[in-house]
Please model this.
Amino acid sequence: MPELEGGRVYNTSFVFDPDGRLAARHRKAHLFDIDVEGGQRFFESETLSAGDEPTVFNTRFGRFGVCVCFDIRFPEFIRSMRADFIFVPAAFNMTTGPLHWELLFRARAVDEQAFTFGCAPARNEKSSYVSYANSIAVSPWGRVIGSAGTGETILTVEAERSEALAVRRQIPTGR
Model:
């Protein structure tokens, strides 16, 4: 949900706790400026302002990280979170989505030995921007444990911090 501040618009994701209180707010740090030959041309920096830091917070389930869309492409940014669970609201397009969506979420899960969750809008072919959709959940082993496809649905998976800790014990990467 974008927010307006001083005439500038930001790509922002809000997280609320079970009591409805604001737990965290992440401003997208990496704006989507691409020009793919024969594909998409898109420059968020023409109208949006970027955030400048990762968003993490502790819960009784573990350390949660939140970023927005294009942020998932920056491994050093994700690494700085040191999170057990990484949530990424995103709307990849039909050029990059089929090639990179699953690959990026699996790569970040393995890199960070964390669960990654890509939360995407359902595909609407009539929209001016067509989302690749395919919300995804990936385990710290890099296994896809849930995928929503292109239509509207609710995706439910089980994710325990103990699995991330077990992976880190078995494959120590200095994380």
